[in-house]
Amino acid sequence: MTYPAILISAPYFSEDEKARIEAVRPAVLAGTPEARAAMPEEARLAIRAIANKGHKPIDGATMDLFPNLAVITQFGVGYDAIDVAAATARGITVTNTPDVLNEDVADLALALMLAWSREIVKGDAWVREGTWAAGRELPLNRKMSGAHVGIAGMGRIGRAIADRCAAFGMPVHYTSRTAKDTPEGWTYHGEDVVSLAQAVEWMVVAVVGGDKTKGYLSREAIDALGPRGVVINIARGTCIDEEALIGALEAGRIAGAALDVFYNEPHVDARLIALPNVLLQPHQASSTVETRRDMSIAQCANLKAYFDGEPFPTPVN
Ligand code: 8YV
């Protein structure tokens, strides 16, 4: 009996995605550590690639279950759930799907900013629940256009967000390891996120996830934002000191937050859920039909490259 050469770590989003992977090589779904450990030894020996999705850890012990594993292809740009050092030590290549999702993630960042400032969610309920028809006007909300915005992390996604903010007439400030080639007037704050926070009302977190950016938006930076400060996070929950954020929101030291990602997602801290000045989303920034298709194509291009003995299009190690 021939066993599949690809292990997929989470169910497919669509039949197309399934067909695309199966067109490279037959695949088997083993979505939990228990399911992987329960695979017969021959089946584990046959696995040469993992098509990974989601944010559950892939550590060295998981890799060791598959002695012939050569590549882990992440469905997504962020690969913080994969222990890349452990992969490198075992000669395993890790790949991701950069760029194809920049526009959607940036769109969601702006959607969060607009929805938060213009009370879109509350306004919808105002109409549906008959409050408007009963003669009550929605309380005035807050102007976004023209306000100073801080982009914490001017990578490819940060840049796509900044370009959109600039179109709204928002002066752009940013942090990054190095100064970027930007339109005139954008202000570089080095890696000083506190200085960035002092200069802006809107703080958009767009740094990569992982150990190096844990708590990047620190307690000090959150407090430096001040009472009109609004925090947007489309990066990773770990990039913000979430305890400090909750404390600042509860005490009214900042105005609010709109968050697509969380420390312990999908289990969102009950204190965040209880706060009226917080807008919550289920980690959906790249979740459009079009972009998920392009991410799947990019993931499969890496899988195919491995089985064809070609160079990987987007390796990370
Ligand atoms: C996806 C993401 O939700 O690309 C990323 O890093 O966080 C998202 O686009 C995720 O990768 C799905 O596996």
From TrEMBL:
GO terms for molecular function: glyoxylate reductase (NADPH) activity; hydroxypyruvate reductase [NAD(P)H] activity; NAD binding. GO terms for cellular component: cytosol. Residues 47-317 form the D-isomer specific 2-hydroxyacid dehydrogenase catalytic domain. Keywords: NAD, NADP, Oxidoreductase. InterPro entries: D-isomer_2-hydroxyacid_DH, D-isomer_2_OHA_DH_cat_dom, D-isomer_DH_NAD-bd, NAD(P)-bd_dom_sf. Residues 110-285 form the D-isomer specific 2-hydroxyacid dehydrogenase NAD-binding domain. Belongs to the D-isomer specific 2-hydroxyacid dehydrogenase family. This is Lactate dehydrogenase-like 2-hydroxyacid dehydrogenase. It comes from Celeribacter persicus.
